[in-house]
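Predict the 3D structure for this chain.
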Amino acid sequence: MVEFDLSDILAEDIVIELATLEVYEGQVGSYGAAVNCQRIKTVWVEASVIWASRPQLGSRVWDSVVGDGAPGWWVFDITEQVQLWVDGEQDNNGVALVHSPGCTFPIVYSSDYTADPDLRPILTIDYSPRTEVEEVSWGQIKATF
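Done. Predicted structure below.
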């Protein structure tokens, strides 16, 4: 589970052009197993989360990667999810990486479990200001030509 503080942009009227979550797979899991990125629907506290008390997840899979048997970076496109957070349509409780049933889950590094800052999760957001489009009728448009 990963959560980023987006308070600096949540108050802005912006359009998310691209939002990617990058995590580093340090210990390889099952070869060929899918890992899905899903929204976390309920509030959670890192220090108290265990399997039995895990937060509720959204059913939609925002993106998925397939383990290739080698350590390296995974990139998840979560553009639509971040836009929903920014627009206030969903609470930002982060996302969870969920593996296929019955496979060995790989270990990905977080800011708490690696001293190397280059291996910590990265959320990159490209955005632009939302521009208002003036509503006009077809007659008004035709008349201007």
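The longest helix spans residues 79-86.
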